[in-house]
Amino acid sequence: MAQPTYEWRPPERGWREQDLFDLPEDGNRYEIIDGSLHVTPPPGYGHQELADEIRAAIRAAAPAGWRIIREAGLRAPGGNLIPDITVLKPSAPPDGMWTQPADIALVVEIESPSSRRHDRFTKPALYAEAAIPFYWRVERGDFGPVVYRYELGKGDHYQLLGTVGPDDPVEVTEPWQMRLDPSTWPR
């Protein structure tokens, strides 16, 4: 059995943002939810390629000043999250490690076997509580990616706007008008 290469002890209290700086830069995604540390393994190549294609599609339609970032840190109520893709408003600070929810127009999560429950249940609830206007969840199916598009409704929950699959490219308006065509993205 291999010995751990990094020695650390969990804090004697709930996890906080500053604790993240003491963790190794090993490719794992470290997020804090309600004082608990959540660790997910690095995504596979297919996940990364799909995230790059979605980011490129959003960026190609973006008005001037908007930024589309992969794996940007987000300060959410009760923790620190790392969406796969974050669309930053033009008013967002030009640089930083942790973004405030008010600076975000859209977050995108691409499901992986290790993140499915968080992407479907935990993270949308936290994004809604943070008042992020739009959330997309992308599933990688046998016939290609399917985008589930959500808008923040009354209260702090999302309402489904619709789905976009590889056989039905559509024009969407969130966070601006663009054409989504998952048939051009990797499976």
TrEMBL record:
Keywords: Endonuclease, Hydrolase, Nuclease. The keyword Nuclease applies. Residues 18-174 form the Putative restriction endonuclease domain. SUPFAM superfamilies: Restriction endonuclease-like. The keyword Nuclease applies. InterPro entries: Nuclease_put_TT1808, Restrct_endonuc-II-like, Uma2. GO terms for molecular function: endonuclease activity. It comes from the Bacteria. It holds the Pfam family Uma2. This is Uma2 family endonuclease. It comes from Micromonospora coerulea.
